[in-house]
């Protein structure tokens, strides 16, 4: 009976190779990513929730460091409101606002990118351990190309010798980008402080307007009650009573609108400060007009515009674009990279650290661009265009800053003139109301004159309040327009 050839035995993997495969499969299953957690909602639990009773989940988490208020900022806020509520609101907003947090995180991102570009100027030293085994079935080829060697070395790999400044210019561009981002974050912080102060003053203004309109409504109702009594006595006509009733309805509508405006102001202030506390009612509502000129508005040379944060940001962006031109020019020249290492080598792991097993590697490489389809030239043209665009953006920012400050100074003169006029009118109205009370007390005037004078006084107070807050709003706008510039008078100011 014919015999069949025995089947070839299956090739078994060596135990060492199996261990390597098992270890590789275990390592590939590992993950160094942090466990995902859904962020807590930074808002109250419901739309109908009162701002003072916001849930704990709505409180901001301190993920980024927030700088405390500077002396300059504290002095500005103290000049706008004597109570401690405004600085407290500003601190809450600085911790709660996500736009500011994003700006700060962009600064940290730019800082990390600058660190990476700066590290590229230094060689990276690494430790390597290799075990190479390669065998061929052909004995002649195996004798020539086969490998069985273990190598342990310390060295650098693909380090570019920056003879033409390409890496240095890229690092400088990253540094200026980082500084530009930093100035942008500072500008965002200043803008947020000004916005919180504006919303706070707006809430105080609307609270005062609500108080004045309610006073007008009360006195209009008092006057209507007196006219009703006189009409019943036959002293006045019904048309006079109906006309006064129309005045009462108009005053009621004004009071209703004032309440709605105050609620919107409260909502806006609560939103920007994180719905953490109820609006403060401890601050005074009496209108006060500051007609004086702050020290930082006494002398305003145009050179102070160069210290604005947005101008500094554009200047750093221009410096970064200028450095990118140097990096684009360096691409036309040869690049030299270097790889080197020193260590030990042996055909067996057991004799790897034996004497006489030293090894070294030195591999310089020169690359000269010959034909790239115009890529380097196009990259250089792009760098030049971006630099010109940065120049135009810088000049436009300076022009806009000059126009903004000029407009605000013109508005300030008008606001001061209006406030001075309203102060005189309020004083005259108050004196007239006082004379009416004296005349009523001695019987020289009718009782009906008292609510009429009170209505005029409340209307005058309302106008004075609006004029006083217009001056404060203008001062805030000027502070933001000069954001970053030294707020000092010419006597102690150092010229930039």
From TrEMBL:
Principal subcellular localisation of the protein: membrane
The protein's name: Outer membrane protein, multidrug efflux system
Highest taxon above the source species: Bacteria
Alphabetized InterPro entries for the sequence: MdtP/NodT-like, OMP_efflux
Protein family per UniProt: Belongs to the outer membrane factor (OMF) (TC 1.B.17) family.
Record keywords, A-Z: Cell outer membrane, Lipoprotein, Membrane, Palmitate, Signal, Transmembrane, Transmembrane beta strand
Pfam families for this protein: OEP
UniProt membrane topology term: Lipid-anchor
Organism of provenance: Pseudomonas poae
Protein's cellular compartments: Cell outer membrane
First and last residue of the signal peptide: 1-35
């Amino acid at each position: 009976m014919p015999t069949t050839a025995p089947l070839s035995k299956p090739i078994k993997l060596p135990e060492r190779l199996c261990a390597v495969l098992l270890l590789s499969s275990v390592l590939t299953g590992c993950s160094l990513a942090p466990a995902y957690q859904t962020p807590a909602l930074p808002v109250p639990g419901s739309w109908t929730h009162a701002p003072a009773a916001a849930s704990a989940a709505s409180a901001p988490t301190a993920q980024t460091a927030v700088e405390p208020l500077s002396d300059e900022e504290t002095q500005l806020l103290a000049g706008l409101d004597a109570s401690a509520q405004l600085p407290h609101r500003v601190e809450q907003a600085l911790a709660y606002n996500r736009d500011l947090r994003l700006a700060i995180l962009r600064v940290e991102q730019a800082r990390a990118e600058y660190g990476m570009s700066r590290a590229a100027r230094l060689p990276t030293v690494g430790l390597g351990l290799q075990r190479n085994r390669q065998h061929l079935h052909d004995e002649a080829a195996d004798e020539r190309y086969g490998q069985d060697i273990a190598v342990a070395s310390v060295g650098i790999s693909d380090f570019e010798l920056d003879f033409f400044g390409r890496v240095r210019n890229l690092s400088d561009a990253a540094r200026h980008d980082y500084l530009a981002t930093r100035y942008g974050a500072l500008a965002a912080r200043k803008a947020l402080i000004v916005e919180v102060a504006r919303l706070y003053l707006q809430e105080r203004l609307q609270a005062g307007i609500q108080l004045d309109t309610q006073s007008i409504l009360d006195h209009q109702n008092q006057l209507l009650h007196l006219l009703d009594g006189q009409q019943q006595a036959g002293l006045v006509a019904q048309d006079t009573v109906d006309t006064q009733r129309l005045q009462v309805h108009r005053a009621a509508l004004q009071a209703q609108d004032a309440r709605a405006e105050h609620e919107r102001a409260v909502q806006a202030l609560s939103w920007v400060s994180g719905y953490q506390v109820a609006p403060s009612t401890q601050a005074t509502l009496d209108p006060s007009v500051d007609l004086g000129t702050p020290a930082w508005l006494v002398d305003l040379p145009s050179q102070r515009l160069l210290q604005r944060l947005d101008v500094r940001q554009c200047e750093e962006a221009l410096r970064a674009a200028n450095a990118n031109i140097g990096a684009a020019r360096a691409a036309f020249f040869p690049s030299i990279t270097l790889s080197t290492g020193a260590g030990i080598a042996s055909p067996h792991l057991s004799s790897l650290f034996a004497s006489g097993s030293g090894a070294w590697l030195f591999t310089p490489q020169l690359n000269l661009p010959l034909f790239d389809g115009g890529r380097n030239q196009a990259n250089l043209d792009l760098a030049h265009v971006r630099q010109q665009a940065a120049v135009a953006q810088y000049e436009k920012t300076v022009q806009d800053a000059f126009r903004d400050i000029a407009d605000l100074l013109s508005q300030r003169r008008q606001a001061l003139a209006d406030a001075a006029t309203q102060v005189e009118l309020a004083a005259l109205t108050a004196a007239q109301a006082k004379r009416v009370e004296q005349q009523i007390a001695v019987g020289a005037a009718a009782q009906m004159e008292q609510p009429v004078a009170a209505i005029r006084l409340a209307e005058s107070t309302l106008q004075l309040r609006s004029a006083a807050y217009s001056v404060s709003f203008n001062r805030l706008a000027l502070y933001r327009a000069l954001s970053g510039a030294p707020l000092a008078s010419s006597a102690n100011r150092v010229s930039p």
